[in-house]
Amino acid sequence: METAYTVVAAVWQVVLLMAPYLLLGFAVAGALSAVMTPERVSRHLGRRGVWQVVKASLLGVPLPLCSCGVLPLAFSLRRSGAGKGATVSFLASTPQTGVDSVMLTWSLLGPVFAVARVVTAFVSGVLAGVLTDRFCRDEDGRGDAQPGGCRGCQETARVANPGEAAGDVPVAPGWIRALRHGFVTLPRDMSRPLLLGVLVSGFVAALVPDSFFAGHMPPGMASYALALLVGVPLYVCSASSVPIAAGFIHMGVSPGAAMVFLVAGPATNAAAVMAMWRQIGRAGTVIYLAAITVSAFCAGAVLDLLFEGLRAGVPAVQAACEHANGHGGGSSFWPAAAAWLLVAMLAPGLWKRGGGVAAKATENTAPGR
């Protein structure tokens, strides 16, 4: 009974840490969805060249889309005339971050990790796009993407093509779409993977001794390779990867290895790689994976070399230590209120299944997905 209470208390501590930041991220992501529609994105990615690649990476960094959710939008842009390099750049940068996941990273891992994620996502997108333009033939985009995966993929597919959302259902005002996307659609889409990540983090903080792997997984290529092998085949969205990475750091894994997981986990999964292989070809897919790997390893090495005391400053690890020492029991009103509000927003996504007529009509009015 005492163990169960310890786990529940540790999970609640993680929720308290992340709730205010994640709610702010939802609000900004909702506003962003009303501005950065697929139509506007497609107008900026229609030609070949380095500047198109840079723009694609910049556009992808703030968008809250997962590695399979980004596929229909990216391939729609490709069919609309976007260059192959710009498409690959968008595919690389978008799933690694989003306004919501950046805020969550700041809350659980601190500002250094948050900034490092943004920079790495942008650099990996530019690297993948430039190399694709340099070494891949840019034939016209063909075929339709039918990736499997999360519910967010299917919602994105319904609104990926310009004008598709404005057929039978009247388009709601922009502020209503922003609120619906930020505080209904986005929390519902990420509720299950985020809950899994929070539970893993809570169990690790409560049951695994601090620095459990210390001395067994020193910083370096071996730990980065292991983090890469764990992250590449799994499906984790950019938000749910954060509490899992915090759990790794609590166990004594180096911050650099955790950073590799934060890059590789959201940017890749088996379903997404298979869909990319079909749509952008073998060479483009290999370049994409190589760019993700190189960027992740470089980011991890920089964190481990330049920030030796980074692990001690990770908020989630500090909270776990305070909880273990008996000093983490209290919480002020506002973090607790934000935590309960976050739970209420995430709860419907735990049991609601997509596909209903009403749900489709609602989603079709949200051009940001």
Keyword list:
single chain; 369 residues; mainly alpha; 69% helix; disordered C terminus
Task: Tell me what the structure shows.
It is built from 17 helices and no strands. With 369 residues, it is mostly helical. It has one domain (2-363). Helix 4 (70-79) packs antiparallel against helix 5.
Secondary structure tally: strands: 0
Shape: globular
Mean residue pLDDT = 77
Note the total helix count. Answer: 17
Low-confidence stretches: 142-149, 151-167, 354-369
Number of domains: 1
Main pleated-sheet profile:
none
Calculate Rg over CA atoms: 20 Å
Strand percentage, roughly?
under 5%
What gap, in angstroms, lies between the N and C termini?
43 Å
Q: In a few lines, what is going on in this structure?
A:
By secondary structure, the protein is mainly α. It has 17 helices and no strands.
Topology:
Blueprint: H1 2-35, H2 38-43, H3 50-60, H4 70-79, H5 84-93, H6 99-109, H7 111-135, H8 151-159, H9 174-207, H10 221-231, H11 241-250, H12 255-267, H13 270-306, H14 315-324, H15 333-346, H16 348-351, H17 357-363
